[in-house]
Known about the structure:
By secondary structure, the chain is an alpha/beta fold. It has two domains: 19-50; 55-393, Aminopeptidase, CATH 3.40.630.190. The chain has helices at residues 2-50, 131-149, 161-170, 180-197, 216-224, 231-251, 255-265, 275-282, 319-330, 340-353; strands at residues 54-55, 73-81, 95-102, 107-113, 118-120, 126-128, 155-160, 174-178, 210-214, 269-271, 289-296, 300-301, 315-316. The protein has a seven-stranded mixed β-sheet with strand order 1-10-7-2-3-4-11, sandwiched between helices. Strands 5-6 form a two-stranded antiparallel ribbon. A hairpin with a 4-residue loop joins β3 (95-102) and β4. The longest helix has 49 residues, at 2-50. It starts with a helix and ends in an 81-residue tail after the last helix. Mean pLDDT is 77; it is low at 32-45 and 363-434.
Amino acid sequence: MKKSRKISERRKMQRKEQIKKRRRKRIAVIVIELIILCVLGVTAFAMFKLGKLNHIGLNSDGLVNNGLAQEGYTNIALFGTDNREGEVEGVRSDCIIVASINNETKEVKMMSVYRDTMLLQEDDTFDKANAAYALGGPQAAVNMLNKNLDLDIEDYVTVNFLALADVVDELGGLEMDLTYEEVVHMNNYCVETSEITGKDYERIEPEEAGTYHLNGVQVVSYSRIRYTSGGDFERTERQRLVLEKIAEKVKASKLSTINKIIDKVLPEVTTSFSSSEILKLASGVFDYKIGETAGFPFDPATPESVPGYTGSYVVAVGLADNVTKAHEFLFPDMEYEPTETVKSINNELFDITGIGPGWVDGTGEDSVNTDDGTDDSSYDDSTYDDSYDDSTYDDSYDDSTYDDSYDSSTYDDSYDDSAYDDSYDDSSYDDSYY
């Protein structure tokens, strides 16, 4: 009797243990299901947000690659334009940045390509770097970078004035140290930038050097300044500085702020990245850190003229040498030898411009840059003064029309990109353009 009672009690204990195990299993399954639902919900939410993005892919079969692959790195072309309607062709990309992400260390290096740099275009003619986007959109611009710089860029991101202004405003503005010259020119640019973006600003008065808290319109205008001693070289430095400050503030922002930025800015962004690719990149966003920045060409020359070409150009003093320096900067752990394509472009540039290593400009001074790549001894800013007025901006730019009587009514919102065609003439290009 006692024995049967013990067996019965043992069976009860076993049944209780089995019931507990089944409960624990059910709870575990429920928890897993909840986690999956949460993940799916977050993913669906993210995909919904990303659905607002303008996705225009690149034709992978039509991408130029000189046979090189920067393994371990993700290279992205960043373009800045002033278009407001999401166009990707017929507008100039006057902010051109190669962003290279080290996939292991998450360091992001940025290299600006000066917009006036003379490079070989997709149609095998030479023109300014910013002409590529105007003539063939992001595909032509990416191909230009890959062909001339021996890169393997497969993706791009394009933002306009309004996108940058919105980001800055949602972040609460940026603290910037400004020189007297920068304050004056920023105030001038703000008039047109405000009209383009439809956003307000307060003019800085009195105009003096100092640290200022700038809103979106002011930051965009600051990024457009080129009428200081460094010209376009310093402008690209300002653009990179703005991106660094934005990245710092985004990292320190609340999720609600980031959500607002996404809602406002995504419709103003055009990219080749798919939603899944963006999610993959975004998963490590807080691990990314901005590294060094530089400008290309590293050794620039600004000749008074180029035979057979109209307008002013920036010419690399030895393209192959400058491309080598670009690779040493972006990919310091990789060996590099210029391809035959880059060597051929190098030789063609020399035949056209007569500019190569050891070139001396009209002043008798070596034009090769010896400091930080932001200034050039041949650069002459005497033509730019504080009376700059960008109200004269139009497609038929004529310096003779310039005077102090600024009238913002001359600015025409009816942007017509039909003005840009295969007969692109940069001589009509206005220096006030971003």
